[in-house]
């Protein structure tokens, strides 16, 4: 075993979104997610119903625990002695509590794996805010926390989506006959414009999503593909990234497209927004229109996901080459919650 502590890090903190684990958790969880964000009460009630449809349990915590188990095995297999801790932004185990435990266990410096591959406020900068908030809650003894970089263009991340898209086409059984549609979480137009350092011209989130989709499409050898969005929230008068996946299925039907493969390239696991908005709503619309529908799996279920995390860790421990397939700048790796660059992905001014 290599004592990674000798290299300056004593732990890996797995930092995720969090989700309810029973009916009584749903409302307090949603209040944590939306505090101060101007999400209308009608939208909250609607989303609460999605959770109650599954008994008030989001799969996200279980998926994270499964993935952590796989990463622990892979770290051990590669001879790296690095304990993994789990903390969330919005639900238990809360990152503040996890960081307090890490501090009590004597951790002085840790790496952080955020369960989002992309830049932008919700996908990157808000995890920096979580890190800063947890350190402030712990106080002067808080460990130094170094977040791993954005991995939307990593060959292991894109490779598992490429295999999943191929498998979904096989499942549909219409080789070359189905349109492939990549989908990511919508964000407000204003948030996307503010994504990235201002001198890069904004839109880091939507440009990275489009680039990830392009790279997967190229690896699969797709003739054409589309990039669309899901799960918009916020007041209707505020513009968000469009088109929405369900509207897009209507548009494809009108164009004469007979079947679709939907690939949730914006996410790492089959959490509630994937199983509700895609497997439920989008699949239902396709069925109503008589269209074929298959949804590509997310990387969490692929054993390469653990390899990806360990490879990102290794970038910090050795001079291992940084593997990335896009020409976009590597970003997101910062310490103690600092932004990637001045004014990078600044949070929008929110009502209230
Ligand atoms: C870019 C992005 C990602 C991908 C990056 C990443 O993975 O981090 C993501 C992931 C997720 N979003 C999730 C759940 C929710 N997101 C909400 C609300 C919002 N998401 C936004 C953006 C994103 N969200 C935004 C701009 C809002 C509006 C409010 C605000 O400005 O913050 C709401 C409130 C209700 C609603 O308005 O829909 C819920 C319940 C879950 C957990 C699902 C589960 O429980 O399994 C996950 C992984
Ligand atoms: Fe979200």
UniProtKB/TrEMBL annotation:
GO cellular component, one term: cytoplasm
Localization: Cytoplasm
Keyword Lyase attached: yes
Gene Ontology BP term (one): heme biosynthetic process
Keyword Aminoacyl-tRNA synthetase (UniProt): no
Example of a GO MF term: ferrochelatase activity
UniProt-listed Enzyme Commission number(s): 4.99.1.9
Record-listed Fe(2+) binding positions: 185, 273
Pathway: Porphyrin-containing compound metabolism; protoheme biosynthesis
Annotated Fe-coproporphyrin III binding sites: 58, 127
Matching Gene3D superfamilies: 3.40.50.1400
Keywords per UniProt: Cytoplasm, Heme biosynthesis, Iron, Lyase, Metal-binding, Porphyrin biosynthesis
Function: Involved in coproporphyrin-dependent heme b biosynthesis. Catalyzes the insertion of ferrous iron into coproporphyrin III to form Fe-coproporphyrin III.
Recorded family membership: Belongs to the ferrochelatase family.
UniProt name for this protein: Coproporphyrin III ferrochelatase
Organism (species): Amycolatopsis cihanbeyliensis
């Amino acid at each position: 075993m290599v004592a990674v502590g000798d290299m300056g890090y004593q732990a890996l903190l797995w930092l995720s979104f969090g989700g309810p684990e029973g009916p009584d958790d749903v409302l307090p969880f949603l209040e944590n997610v939306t505090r101060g964000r101007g999400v209308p009460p009608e939208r909250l009630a609607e989303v609460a119903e999605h959770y109650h449809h599954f008994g008030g349990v989001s799969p996200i915590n279980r998926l994270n625990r499964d993935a952590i188990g796989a990463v622990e095995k892979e770290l051990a297999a590669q001879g790296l002695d690095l304990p993994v801790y789990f903390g969330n932004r919005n639900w238990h185990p809360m990152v503040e509590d996890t960081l307090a435990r890490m501090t009590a266990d004597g951790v002085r410096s840790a790496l952080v794996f955020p369960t989002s591959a992309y830049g932008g406020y919700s996908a990157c900068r808000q995890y920096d805010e979580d890190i800063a908030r947890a350190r402030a809650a712990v106080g002067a003894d808080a460990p130094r926390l170094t977040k791993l970089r954005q991995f939307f263009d990593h060959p292991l991340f894109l490779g598992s989506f490429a295999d999943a898209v191929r498998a979904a086409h096989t499942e549909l059984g219409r080789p070359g006959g189905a349109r492939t549609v990549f989908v990511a979480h919508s964000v407000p137009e204003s948030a996307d414009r503010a994504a990235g350092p201002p001198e890069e011209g904004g839109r880091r989130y939507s440009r990275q999503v489009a680039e990830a989709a392009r790279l997967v499409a190229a690896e699969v050898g797709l003739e054409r593909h589309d990039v669309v969005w899901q799960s918009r929230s916020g007041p209707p008068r505020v513009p968000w990234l469009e088109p929405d996946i369900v509207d897009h299925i209507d548009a494809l039907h009108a164009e004469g497209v007979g079947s679709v493969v939907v690939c949730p390239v914006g996410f790492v696991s089959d959490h509630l927004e994937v199983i509700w908005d895609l497997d439920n709503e989008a699949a239902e619309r396709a069925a109503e229109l008589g269209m074929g529908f298959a949804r590509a799996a997310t990387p969490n279920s692929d054993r390469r996901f653990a390899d990806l995390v360990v490879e990102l860790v290794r970038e910090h421990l050795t001079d291992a080459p940084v593997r990335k397939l896009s020409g976009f700048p590597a970003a997101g790796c910062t310490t103690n919650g600092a932004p990637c660059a001045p004014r990078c992905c600044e949070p929008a001014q929110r009502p209230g």
